[in-house]
Amino acid sequence: MLVQAGLFKRLLSMLYESLLLIAIFAFGTLIFIKFFGDATLSPKRYFLQFFLWSLGGVYFIWCWLKSGQTLAMKSWKIQLVDYNGNNLTLPHCIKRYVLASLGLIFFGCGYIWALFDREGLFLHDRLTGSKVISLETRAD
Hints:
By secondary structure, the protein is mostly helical. It is 60% helix and 7% strand. It has one domain (7-134). The protein has a two-stranded antiparallel sheet.
């Protein structure tokens, strides 16, 4: 039986994930600046932002496709699956990443949605038919 991971556990996983993303973005920024130089002025600044967003997308989508788990999700024993318990397909992963990004950009509304959703899903999960389940034997 698929037991959805609790909101608190998902938020803690996201906090851990943000620390990993800081390291990925720092390394990505170093590479970008090494090849393209100073990126404090536009349009180079916008190219850097898009590059970092794409780099984050590669990380998340690759992890979701491979096992349904990022490093933080493995640590918290949660996994991303579709409603039937299967791993997501590439188009679903891309859609989820884009929608999750938009939900964060618009003042976190896509995440606040979970407080009002009848199943506690984030908006991007509701729209992509996915959910984060707990891999522990007990419900949280």
